[in-house]
Amino acid sequence: MRARTGDDPVIVKFEFNEVVVPAKPGMISSETLAKPLHMLPVGGKAAWSVQFDALPKLVVRMTLANGVVALGEFYRDHEWSRIEAIADGLLGVSIADLTLQELPLPLVREFDGFELAIWDGWAKTLGLPLHRLLGGPVREKVLCHAWSSHRTLDEIGPWVRAYQDQGYHSIKLKADLEDDVVGLCEQIAVHAHGMKVVFDPNQRWENMASAKLRIRGLEQVGNVQLLEDPIPKWMIPDYADLCRFSSIPITQHIALPYIYQGQRVHDIIALIQQRAADGFNFNAGLAKFAQLNAIAEAANLWCFHGSEVDLGILEAMYLHQSIAAKSCVWSSDIFGRLIREHDLLETPLRFEPPYAFVPEGPGLGVSLDPAALERYGVRHEVFA
């Protein structure tokens, strides 16, 4: 152990703000198609039963003995007992003694929020932007798409055209077996010619028969850029068949925060070995995202960055990750401020559709808006 000095980055305080930030009216889906999108069970409720913007989010300010205040944001639906236990274990620890790629934290959904605060604190201590800890930028800006959940046939065309008029080149849409995805794409082609579509059924097309039927129709329309997770993930041989069958690239979402679904970094290796994906959507913390990117880059496959329609701190992290990842070529899921009422940032992230830009300054390069924390806050805790 090193000798401690007054400038040592020892963790001395955690300040947590739990918030609920709703979506703007009408921004999630058509009113007649209000389908909850949170695919994990919540409390005593089953999966797919709660809309994501009704769930609390947690932001943290981690104070170091050297005066640095680092930021982190957790994925929706955290558990306070874990938060308190992990914070208690980190108080008094110097982040200079930690190995960033192997932090002494349990593998739980709350991992990435603490990891982000630690990385932000170390980057600020060094006076570097966060992406420098990831190897530095390989691009100047991040390509992004617009987003919507389920839309009706009569609404989808004008809705997508409005995003095209803003400058977006593509839009990501949710889809289940009840959605007329071919009809949706036909309407988009009429109202927003040249606009591309990324469809994400979230594994709800169930089997090869239903997926193939829809793929052939979508191929004829010709404006689908990617098809993500059309069938259940365990059907790896069927995914390999779909990749051979479809002229539309088939992507798989490797979402490490979905720990309860068993998703891990090694999933990408199995998918590449069995030729069961043409590319990927990656959701992960800083160290694991770097691992996923390295594997995809070595296999010469592309990815885009996923999200859970998050607030500004996590989206700032996504931008730092994306500009430092060579495989991150496709348009990414960074659109939270489009959908939610606020991102909790004092200065919003810079969007010039279809691109988003990394904030300038050390660490994440963002600061919290105290008035927004007060407005949307539902709980406040301090551990020191």
From TrEMBL:
Superkingdom to which the source organism belongs: Bacteria
Xref: Gene3D superfamilies: Enolase-like C-terminal domain, Enolase-like, N-terminal domain
GO molecular function, one term: catalytic activity
Limits of the Mandelate racemase/muconate lactonizing enzyme C-terminal domain: 153-249
InterPro entries recorded: DgoD-like, Enolase-like_C_sf, Enolase-like_N, Enolase_C-like, Mandelate_racemase_C
Protein name: Mandelate racemase
Organism: Sphingomonas koreensis
